[in-house]
Design a protein that fits this description.
heterodimer; A: alpha/beta; TIM Barrel; 2 domains; 9-stranded mixed β-sheet; 9 strands; B: alpha+beta; Arc Repressor Mutant, subunit A; 3-stranded antiparallel β-sheet; two-stranded antiparallel ribbon; 5 strands; 38% helix
Amino acid sequence: MEIQEFPLWAKMEERKSLFSFTLEITARCNNDCRHCYINLPPGDQHARSRELTLEEINELADQAVELGALWVLISGGEPLLREDFPEIYLLLKRKGLFVSVFTNATLVNEEHIALFRKYPPRDIEVTVYGATAESYERVTQKPGSFAAFTKGLDLLFENGVNVRLKAVVMRSNFKELPVIAEFCRARTKDYFRFDPQLHMRFDRNEERNMLIRSERLTPEEIVALDRADGERFSSLQKECQTLIDSAVGHVGCDHLFHCALGQGECTISYDGTFRLCSSLWAPGTVYDLREGSLRHAWEEFVPKVLDMRSRRPEYQENCHNCTLIDFCLWCPAHAHLETGELDVPIEYFCRVAHARAEAIQS
Amino acid sequence: MELTLDMICIPSEDIVARVIEDELVIVPLTAGIGDADDELYTMNETGKAIWLHLDGGTSLRTIVEELTAEFNATSEVIAEDVLGLVAELVQKKIVVVQ
């Protein structure tokens, strides 16, 4: 039975239980991807010293399981950078959790393969930054990373590990997207997914944010990518009206959050910070699990965040009443990453959403 | 191997059994349990009652006697349910015969 089809899900949803969580076990990464919102250097001692210990992860996993969690996504940074990754992985499996892993695959070795073969993950998700060394390493900024990536990926596939591939598209690789799609389709039967929208960094590092901005595609380029993939385009057309219709319900309400925030999922940062979603880092919306408990965060803190409101005219007159809001990358979390405020419109997102909607509805 | 009421069966060490929202959920830990590695098993009330008696200390016959005292059904019907469920769980390697 697929987790999504699990009948208990409806009961858990009704009781607002915690169903799944993302555990970012490190913010460090051996790659230095130009678009990345989190990566810190692999040798960053400050970041390393703040990482949750194995014992802390064990305690948090116990708390999550007690709240009913059934699925955990191990993410980063690059999770395999942690020498105790096998212990963390096995610890979570032994709690009765389904475990997924996000990795760039460059550090996959025989020990990981033996672990995944004996204790299978639900899936391993790998992002493909390029299908050639030139484009891949233009993104990762690490010579030799493409060879390490293909070696790791081959090891996973040859050993029957359930791997899912996806792509992130940016200026450095978008001309190669058809080749990336071919690379992915040749290896898995999954629907080829790519994300053309980049958001800013969690630490609001301006130097890195400038790099991310320089990698963003124009609205016209994103629309062209949508149109070039027939399957994706027809899927967008199918879903578009639902997303646009759902926005009607926001009118007359001054709540900030209208997404699925707090509905069964949360994220735990490498340093034990509780977040309601992977993009929400704004002060006042995060909770230090080293000073409290996951139950308190979930049951007492989350409702307070969900009750946050805005009467800022700029927001009320634009994003809040926009029928494209659920179709747009804009959300309070991304607004904060861009501007430091939760309720400020973002012109780039606005232009992308309108261009895509116009293309889809035409 | 045919399952008999004289056998003692216990949950495999290769699964994790959890109770979530009063439902029994069985999560495979290792490869080769059940039909797929990402498969999830739940049980109805009867199944859950049988599972909770698989403590390793009692034979299936004793479990049938205990369940007959708990439920409004004959021992023959209960025995059929117990053997049927446990045989399926043994086949899926969720339960092992001691």
